[in-house]
Write a structure and sequence with these properties.
single chain; alpha+beta; Glutaredoxin; 4 strands
C-alpha cells in the first residue's frame, strides 16, 4: 500500500502531522507493507526569503494581526508540537522560500531517502531555526543523511528537479488539494491536516482491508 503525503517543510502542521502519522504507522500491523511517497507543495511560492525580520514581525506585517495575536498563534503551534515530542523554535525561525528545499527532497527521493530528508529539513527549520533557502544549509542537511555533496551542489546550481517539484504541485491541484499536510492512501482515501493518530490508523486499516 502506498501513502502519498503532500507537505511543505515550512508548514508546522506538516511536521506535527508527520509525527501523528508515524505514531499510527507504529500501531499498524502491516506497517512493513506501506510505502511512503513525499510530495512537494509550496504554501507560498512567492514568499521572499528574509533574514532581517523574525516570524512575529512577518505575521504582524503580512497577516494583519497584532504582536500579541501573532505570539498566541505561534504558542498554539508550539504546544501542539510539544504534545508529539517536538521542540519548536518558531519565534527564531527564518522566513525562507522552500523551493530549493523541495528540489533537494526530489533528489533525495530519487535515492530512496525521502523520509530521511523530510525529517532533517523539518528539524533544521523548526527546531534549529536554520535558513532552508541557504545552499550551505541545504548541502549540510543533505550530507547529514548520506547524499553526495558535489551532486547536491550541482543540483542547486541548475534547474534539476524543478520539473518534479512542479509536477507534484500540479498533481495536488488536479485532485483538489488546497492545503497541507494532505495524505492519500492507495489513491482512494484522503486525510487532510494534522489529524489525531487514531484517524490515521483507522484510514490505514480501511485502505488496507479494501
Amino acid at each position: 500500500m502506498e501513502v502519498k503525503i503532500w507537505s511543505d517543510v515550512r508548514c508546522p502542521f506538516c511536521y506535527i502531522g508527520k509525527r501523528k502519522f508515524e505514531a499510527a504507522l507504529e500501531q499498524f500491523q502491516h506497517k512493513d507493507e506501506v510505502k511512503i511517497t513525499w510530495k512537494s507543495f509550496q504554501l507560498d511560492p512567492t514568499l521572499e526569503t528574509r533574514t532581517d525580520i523574525n516570524t512575529i514581525d512577518y505575521f504582524v506585517e503580512n497577516k494583519g494581526v497584532t504582536e500579541e495575536q501573532a505570539r498566541q498563534m505561534l504558542s498554539g503551534a508550539t504546544q501542539m508540537a510539544k504534545d508529539v515530542g517536538l521542540d519548536f523554535n518558531l519565534e527564531k525561525s527564518v522566513l525562507a522560500n522552500s523551493f530549493k528545499a523541495h528540489k533537494l527532497i526530489q533528489l533525495a527521493k530519487s535515492k530512496g531517502l525521502g523520509n530521511e530528508i523530510e525529517e532533517a529539513l523539518f528539524k533544521a527549520y523548526f527546531e534549529e531555526a536554520k535558513n532552508i533557502d541557504d545552499p550551505e544549509v541545504l548541502v549540510n542537511t543533505a550530507t547529514s543523511i548520506g547524499l553526495d555533496e558535489s551532486e547536491v551542489r550541482q543540483m542547486l546550481e541548475s534547474d534539476a528537479f524543478e520539473y518534479e517539484v512542479k509536477q507534484d504541485e500540479l498533481e495536488a491541484r488536479n485532485i483538489g488539494v488546497r492545503g497541507v499536510p494532505f495524505f492519500v492512501f492507495d489513491d482512494r482515501y484522503a486525510v487532510s491536516g494534522a489529524q489525531p493518530t487514531e484517524a490515521f490508523l483507522q484510514t490505514l486499516e480501511k485502505a488496507f482491508d479494501n
